[in-house]
Backbone:
């Protein structure tokens, strides 16, 4: 890769590669099925047993406390090895950074090790029927219950990824009915088996229930499960919105591995559709650009910079790249592209991964919201009519 | 591991930006297009004083033996400001080509800024830029280098690119394959960096314009249709630059993949500059469609450089060939 990795970094890469080569189960059934979820949890246990599940975390919670560079190296090796997608992703990338920053020592001890080994799979509960891109429109409520020392949740969350097979959820609720928009929200953690919670799975475009609605009907949550201060939920949730590990800085390994699969497909099928040549090359170039871009970001972060609004630039690029790359793969399959399952080329992986890629421009802030952020915070264009 | 530019490279870029911002480069560009070289040559001297012309000339030939990344930093600035003249030919290509030939003495003058070399290198760059005013004109055909002379003037879509058809006019010399390959890679890298700079300038001027221009009672930069189009340009440029820098680092370390990455950089830089040009033109509206507005300097530069030093089709082919071999 022509970058000067240190001996220590190269040794870490070699160790990760060797462990993954020996232990990776390859592709597993979809994590959004009963069997698939169980298989993915088992894989997380295996990863944790080798201390590979959360390499960037402190050792006391199951990690190796590696540098950001090494984290990206691990992610590269992970995807190159063909290892499965992570059922613990939401917890590790969205929730854990907040627990590290705002959680009490007791919360850190109670939640992080169980997240690290896949015992607790977490589902995010952000969106509501009337609060999608406009997340501050949250209406679900939290009412103070002084007698029991906690809060009572009511309302409805939706599009909660992983919720059908997860153990616990995290999300924002309106704890001050008089406050509006970003104010008066509180960040709660709750078991999905709590009394008063109903999870209704929603089949996604791929047919599997990757997300769900969650209904809250007088669900009691003790004070010990409030993350950050009461009424401070928005600030707590956004404090790591530019979080460098996970969604904003999505490791490049996944896209380079997909680009390599596309090149293999081109070797097999390119003769049949030579007009797709440019699309194949552009997908690979995009993955290579993403790889170099990420190393530049890692440098900046390690020099004390932060991700800031550049996370939006990043998300726009990888989410569009992912869709384009998989559309090209499907196009190379010709009439076979519509097939799914075992009869399909490559076990249906092209269509499975394509359907997954289609969610990228929507989740974690739609690409329209991201373009607004880029235009206003990076280019400095005027916000225009007042939005609160 | 380090990917980012060094502090020295940043301050080099800042120094070039300072100089070029203080000079009226658009006026020099227009004068150059009209055949008046005075202001352009003064810029050449000033940039030579900052070391641009000596960047990849070997130390023993009076150069500073800099890196391909230094070159990329410089050419992004030249592109950003629309500097006219045979910079790619003199600064990026000539050092590799001339070093082992009987013309090697020219390099000391290139480094010092007194020689301006132009080179036609068909098929990638079939015409010699500024052959009428350069101090040395060469023709590179495959691995054969000859002094050359102009046969006729041609007109580029970019008026500041004064192209000439040339023919060999002097003794031929056979060059080492790696000298030719490296020279062409550095020229392509410099062209790619220049395209990124061109795109950045188009974006910057567009952001300024849409923040001032009012229609329907508000500045047009408030409209999402404008915001989203310019955001897409930001994204395209932000992901083209790492390819240019990554390719530069590969050339520096002699990486086998460097040639492939140079081609990838040219494709991404061309596409990003093209998107910047189309978007800049669209958000400016009719005023952007005039030769009088300075935006024309960069819109037409982006178009001209798209085909120079290998079209995107050529470079996509090179990327794929390399990937299929590995």
Residues:
């Amino acid at each position: 890769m022509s970058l000067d990795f240190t001996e220590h970094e190269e040794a870490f890469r070699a160790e990760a590669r060797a462990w993954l080569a020996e232990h990776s189960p390859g592709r597993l059934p979809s994590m959004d099925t009963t069997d698939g979820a169980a298989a993915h949890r088992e894989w997380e246990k295996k990863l944790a047993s080798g201390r590979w599940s959360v390499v960037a975390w402190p050792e006391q919670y199951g990690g190796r406390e590696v540098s950001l560079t090494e984290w990206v190296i691990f992610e590269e090796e992970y995807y190159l090895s063909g290892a499965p997608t992570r059922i613990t992703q939401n917890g590790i990338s969205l929730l854990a950074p907040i627990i590290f920053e705002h959680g009490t020592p007791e919360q850190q001890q109670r939640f992080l090790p169980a997240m690290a080994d896949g015992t607790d799979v977490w589902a995010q509960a952000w969106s509501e029927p009337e609060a999608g891109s406009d997340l501050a429109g949250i209406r679900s409520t939290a009412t103070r219950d002084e007698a029991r020392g906690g809060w009572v949740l009511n309302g409805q969350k939706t599009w909660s990824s992983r919720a059908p097979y997860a153990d616990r959820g995290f999300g924002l609720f309106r704890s001050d009915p008089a406050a509006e928009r970003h104010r008066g929200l509180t960040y709660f953690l709750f078991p999905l088996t709590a009394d008063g919670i109903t999870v209704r799975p929603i089949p996604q475009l791929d047919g599997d229930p990757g997300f769900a609605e969650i209904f809250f009907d007088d669900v009691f949550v003790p004070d010990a499960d409030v993350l950050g201060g009461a009424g401070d939920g928005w600030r707590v949730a956004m404090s790591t919105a530019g979080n460098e590990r996970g969604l904003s800085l999505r490791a490049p390994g996944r896209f380079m591995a997909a680009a390599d699969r596309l090149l293999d497909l081109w070797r097999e099928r390119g003769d049949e559709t030579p007009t797709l040549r440019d699309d194949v090359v552009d997908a690979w170039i995009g993955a290579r650009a993403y790889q170099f871009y990420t190393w530049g970001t890692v440098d900046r972060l390690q020099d004390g910079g932060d991700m800031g609004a550049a996370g939006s630039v990043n998300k726009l690029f990888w989410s569009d790249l992912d869709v384009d790359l998989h559309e090209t793969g499907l196009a190379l399959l010709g009439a076979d592209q519509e097939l799914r399952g075992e009869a399909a080329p490559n076990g249906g992986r092209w269509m499975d991964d394509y359907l997954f890629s289609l969610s990228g421009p929507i989740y974690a802030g739609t690409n329209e919201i991201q373009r607004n952020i880029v235009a206003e915070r990076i280019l400095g264009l005027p916000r225009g009519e007042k939005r609160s | 591991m380090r990917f980012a530019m060094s502090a020295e490279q940043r301050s080099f870029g800042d120094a070039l930006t300072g100089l070029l911002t203080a000079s009226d480069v658009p006026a020099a560009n227009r004068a150059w297009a009209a055949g008046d070289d005075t202001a352009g040559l003064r810029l050449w001297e000033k940039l030579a004083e900052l070391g641009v012309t000596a960047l990849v000339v070997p130390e023993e030939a009076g150069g500073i033996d800099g890196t391909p990344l230094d070159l990329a930093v410089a050419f992004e600035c030249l592109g950003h400001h629309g500097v006219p003249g045979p910079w790619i030919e003199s600064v990026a290509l000539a050092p590799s080509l001339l070093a082992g030939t009987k013309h090697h003495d020219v390099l000391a003058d290139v480094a010092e800024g007194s020689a301006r070399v132009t080179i036609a290198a068909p098929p990638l760059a079939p015409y010699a830029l500024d052959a009428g005013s350069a101090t040395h004109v060469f023709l590179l055909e495959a691995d054969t280098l000859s002094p050359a002379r102009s046969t006729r003037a041609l007109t580029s879509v970019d008026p500041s690119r004064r192209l000439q058809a040339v023919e060999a006019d002097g003794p031929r010399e056979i060059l080492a394959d790696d000298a030719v390959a490296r020279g062409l890679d550095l020229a392509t890298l410099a062209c790619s960096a220049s395209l990124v700079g061109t795109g950045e300038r188009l974006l910057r001027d567009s952001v300024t314009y849409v923040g001032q221009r009012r229609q329907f009672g508000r500045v047009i930069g408030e409209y999402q249709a404008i915001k989203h189009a310019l955001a897409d340009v930001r994204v395209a440029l932000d992901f083209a630059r790492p390819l240019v820098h990554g390719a530069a680092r590969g050339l520096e370390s002699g990486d086998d993949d460097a040639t492939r990455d140079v081609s990838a950089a040219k494709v991404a830089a061309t596409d990003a500059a093209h998107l910047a040009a189309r978007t800049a033109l669209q958000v400016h509206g009719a005023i952007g469609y005039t030769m009088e507005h300075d935006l024309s300097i960069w819109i037409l530069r982006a178009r001209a450089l798209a085909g120079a030093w290998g079209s995107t089709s050529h470079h996509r082919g090179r990327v794929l060939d390399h990937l299929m071999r590995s």
Summary: The longest strand of chain A covers residues 150-161. The radius of gyration of chain A is 21 Å.
